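for the writeup, i need someone to sanity check this before i put it in the appendix. the sequnce is what the collaborator sent (i think, or maybe the updated version? ugh). structure was predicted straight from it, no edits. if anything looks off just tell me and ill rerun, i have time this weekend
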Amino acid sequence: MENNLQEKIKLQQQIAVIENSAKTYLDKKALQRYGNLRIAHQERALQIAAVIVQAVHEGTIMQPLTDQEFKTILENLQQPKKEFKFTRK
């Protein structure tokens, strides 16, 4: 039980490091959007933070992302919505 608690704490620390690293590469509006996303969709926010950190390590991102660039990354990560067709009989 104590081991499980230690794993959770370690995981939360890793998440905090990823988020803090990603936040340094967001401008003011993008950071606000990230905060809203984190409140509504924690998993998606963590996913986009990981993508940003990875892009920084690869050298793709050199300066803070604008809100528009952040939205573009977010749109690219979203799953396409399924279309439903209803037929009347």
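The radius of gyration is 17 Å. The mean pLDDT is 89.
thx in advance!!
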